[in-house]
Amino acid sequence: MIRQLMSRTIPLFFLASLFWLLPAYSLAQELGIREVAPGVYMHQGAHEDLDDGYQGDISNIGFIIGTEGVAVIDTGGSQQVGQALLASIRKLTNLPVLYVINTHIHPDHIFGNAAFKQEQAIFIGHAKLANAMELRKDAYLRQGHDLLGEQFSGSEVIKPTLMVESSQELDIGERKLLLTAYPNAHTNTDLTVLDEKTGTLWTGDLLFIERTPSIDGDIKGWLSAIAQLQQLKGIRHAIPGHGPATQDLQGALNNQARYLNLLLSDVRNAIKQGKTMEQAMDSAAASEASHWQLFNSVNRRNVNLIYPALEWE
Ligand SMILES: [Zn+2]
């Protein structure tokens, strides 16, 4: 009898112990959090456009746990999303949130900051982030209220007090994070975060996966930033601003560079051929449409942004 029981329970124990050995891609929380690498947790936002079913939860947000405290990377599009992120952190650790890092200015990444006020965290961003927030604050708050209504309540713009000019190292306890600021690219406030312990790079919106990359800075600067990211060695996981985490940073960067290079050359050619911006919107980078989500709307906005700038080249 005992022998029979043993033969049935041992394999179960064996399986259970294997489960704990599984490294990544486990753990589901209310917000849908997963452990991409040991101690590195991300929530993947939905691929929704701002004007279509927006819930304030379209970008990737997450956190890294050290032995002294937690660093949060992006906070979502509303205080509510930030609260849900904080609740996910509290299910895993009672360590203080030491830092809240914003990878750039966009509202889907920063409006959860308010949830971390009472944590007395230090807010960190690119050297130009505080000024960008000041300039866009009113428009972003108005837009948030218009899109989310009640769900936006409590959301506010919280500026960084620690600003990164070129690079900055943070220590959250037996764990060093390297922050790097970039010149004008996706926006003029792009910052990446490298967790040296696991080789995990949070790219912010310098990298889009699946969702069409949207330009709000400088397309040529973005291509330079991609070239810079391609030089990085030892990256084992990359967490983009939108889309799933990947172990193939180079492949994802290549996809994005392929789209941006084609868009750049198509818009340049359209201008040379005397085509209007409307015509360029209809035709530029059209062969990329099947590779990306939300392509038609985002690609048109991209043409709208880069066409006037390229006219003066
Ligand atoms: Zn963005």
Helix-strand pattern, N to C? HEEEEHEHEHEEEEEHEHHH
Structural class: alpha/beta
Number of domains: 1
Small-molecule binders here are: zinc ion
Oligomer state of the chains in this structure: single chain
CATH superfamily: Ribonuclease Z/Hydroxyacylglutathione hydrolase-like
Low-confidence stretches: 1-29
The biggest beta sheet is recorded as: 7 strands, mixed
| Rg, alpha carbons | 21 Å
If classified by CATH, what would the architecture be?
A: 4-Layer Sandwich
Beta-strand segment tally: 12
How large is the share of residues in beta strands? 15-25%
CATH-derived topology: Metallo-beta-lactamase, Chain A
Mean pLDDT: 91
Order of neighbouring strands in the sheet with most strands: 1-2-3-4-5-6-7
CATH class: Alpha Beta
Q: How many helices in DSSP terms?
A: 8
Give the proportion of residues in helices: 25-40%
List keywords for this structure.
single chain; 313 residues; alpha/beta; Metallo-beta-lactamase, Chain A; globular; binds zinc ion
